[in-house]
Structures are given as structure tokens and as C-alpha cells.
């Protein structure tokens, strides 16, 4: 029986969801989309994502693929999903791809950004981490420069949940407009909690709670138990996946 492989590019607000990956007792992004695909294709469909996002994390460019024995035009899939999905999930692109394509294993890299806002703003609530303390932006930039020199970032992972140790960290920089700090990270792959731990430790350097020497010791320990600070999930956005 002939199979067809479809690739979706997905945007979602993660606030209401217990992450991407389907779970038995929680509502997740994967579950919601798969349920609608089952209606359209009249068969059980399993989405393979570029990677899972945790509860509360948002996505501007998540990528997932699924295979089916039924052919549907990509524009039909996109139109049906955008009409039937909740308003906090949207499909920006649907396309047929070769059967060899796998959203997770075909990925060459990803970009995330994390948003910190330094002045109270209810319109940023749920889409960033509000920090009222005085922040030294130069110290944060120095911390990011230090982190860029390492490939083993196990200290910024979840204990027991890391994959390969070596990270090809392609970009790591900070933007600040006077109110919002955005930390952008592009890498070959990401350890679980890696971005949120990098952000939290960098911020502690910026607020004077951690020195660069102490940060260096934490990184070189290559021990998740040493990297104890983690930023809240609502400031994290999966921006793009590269193939």
C-alpha cells in the first residue's frame, strides 16, 4: 500500500498545554492536532516533531511530519486544520515530502529565543519572564561569550535526560531594547532545559548573584546537579527548525 508523508509547520501558544508530547492525563499540542488529523484522514495518525517543547513553551516554527495511506492535497490539510484547531494553534505551511523525511532526525539545527521583560506589562504576561531586579546587560553579554566557548553543556541539562554531549553552538547573543531582553540561541541540537538554564544562569550573572568564575566552574563540572537555576517556561519560544 502506498504511503504519503506530510510535513507541517506549526505555531502555538503553549500556555494551555502540557507541552508538545502526547500524555495520558494531560492535554498537549500533539494530541490536539492528531485528533483533528484522525477526523480528516479517517485513520490514526502519529505526528513526529522536530523535538518536544515543555509545558508553557511557545513555538513560532515547530515542524512535524506524519505518514498516511490516504492522499490529501496539502492546501486541504492546512485549511481543515486551521478551521478546526483551537485559536492558540495554527498551521502556517503544509507540504508533501519524501518518505525519508523525519522531522526529528532530518533536522540540522534549531533557533530558540527567550524573552525577559524588565518593566511591568500585562500584555507580556505569559510571554516572558518579568524580572524587577537591576540587570547589568554587559555582564550578561560576558556570560554568553563565556558559554559560547564550550561544546559540553551537560551542566545545563536535565539530569539523566541528555543525548549527545557535544553541542555545535552556532549563535548565542542578546538583544535589549530598553525594556525587553531577548536571548537567541542557534545550535545543532538542544538538551532538555538547556536554553532555560543558560538564561537563568546568565541572568544571575547580570544581577550580581553569580560571578563569571563561578559560572565557569559550573559549566566545566559537566554535571546537571551543578546547574541548578532554570528560567520559567513562558519566556521560551521555538523560533525555527533548519533542514
Describe the protein in words.
The protein is of the alpha+beta class. The chain folds into two domains: 4-97, 2-Layer Sandwich (Alpha-Beta Plaits); 109-242, Alpha-Beta Plaits, CATH 3.30.70.660. Helix content is 24%, strand content 27%. Strands 1, 2, 3, 4, 5, 6, 7, 8 and 9 form a nine-stranded mixed beta sheet that branches. Helix 1 crosses helix 2, helix 3 packs across helix 4 (194-206) and helix 3 (137-148) packs parallel to helix 5. The longest helix is centred in the N-terminal third of the chain and has 13 residues, at 29-41. The chain is elongated, with a radius of gyration of 19 Å. The chain starts with a strand and ends with a strand. The model has no long low-confidence stretch (mean pLDDT 96).
Quickly describe the structure:
By secondary structure, the chain is α+β, with helices and mostly antiparallel strands.
Sequence-ordered SSE layout with sheet pairings:
Layout: E1 4-12, H1 29-41, E2 48-49, E3 58-68, H2 74-84, E4 89-97, E5 109-117, E6 129-130, H3 137-148, E7 169-176, E8 180-187, H4 194-206, H5 212-220, E9 236-242
Helix pairs in contact: 1-2, 3-4, 3-5
Provide key terms for this protein.
243 residues, alpha+beta, Alpha-Beta Plaits, 9-stranded mixed β-sheet, 5 helices, 27% strand
Termini separation comes to: 28 Å
Low-confidence segments? none
Q: Return Rg in Å.
A: 19 Å
CATH superfamily heading of the largest domain? Pseudouridine synthase I, catalytic domain, C-terminal subdomain
